[in-house]
Amino acid sequence: MANKLNITLKRSLIGSLPKQRKTMEALGLKKINQAVELPDNGSTRGMIKLVEHLVEVKEA
């Protein structure tokens, strides 16, 4: 596995559950097409799993 993940918000948070919104805030994503680079670890992967239908993930 790579050391970093590029995560991009691809869908709107409108209509999403409060837990999903808090997860997106923790990932640092607020606007559509905004991208962040985060470490590839268990906690990041767990957060991605909760919002996998809203984001696009690539290995950096």
Automatic annotation (TrEMBL):
<dbReference type="InterPro" id="IPR036919">
    <property type="entry name" value="Ribo_uL30_ferredoxin-like_sf"/>
</dbReference>
<protein>
    <recommendedName>
        <fullName>Large ribosomal subunit protein uL30</fullName>
    </recommendedName>
</protein>
<keyword id="KW-0689">Ribosomal protein</keyword>
<dbReference type="GO" id="GO:0006412">
    <property type="term" value="P:translation"/>
</dbReference>
<dbReference type="InterPro" id="IPR018038">
    <property type="entry name" value="Ribosomal_uL30_CS"/>
</dbReference>
<dbReference type="InterPro" id="IPR016082">
    <property type="entry name" value="Ribosomal_uL30_ferredoxin-like"/>
</dbReference>
<keyword id="KW-0687">Ribonucleoprotein</keyword>
<dbReference type="GO" id="GO:0022625">
    <property type="term" value="C:cytosolic large ribosomal subunit"/>
</dbReference>
<dbReference type="GO" id="GO:0003735">
    <property type="term" value="F:structural constituent of ribosome"/>
</dbReference>
<feature type="domain" description="Large ribosomal subunit protein uL30-like ferredoxin-like fold">
    <location>
        <begin position="6"/>
        <end position="55"/>
    </location>
</feature>
<dbReference type="InterPro" id="IPR005996">
    <property type="entry name" value="Ribosomal_uL30_bac-type"/>
</dbReference>
<comment type="similarity">
    <text>Belongs to the universal ribosomal protein uL30 family.</text>
</comment>
<dbReference type="Pfam" id="PF00327">
    <property type="entry name" value="Ribosomal_L30"/>
</dbReference>
<comment type="subunit">
    <text>Part of the 50S ribosomal subunit.</text>
</comment>
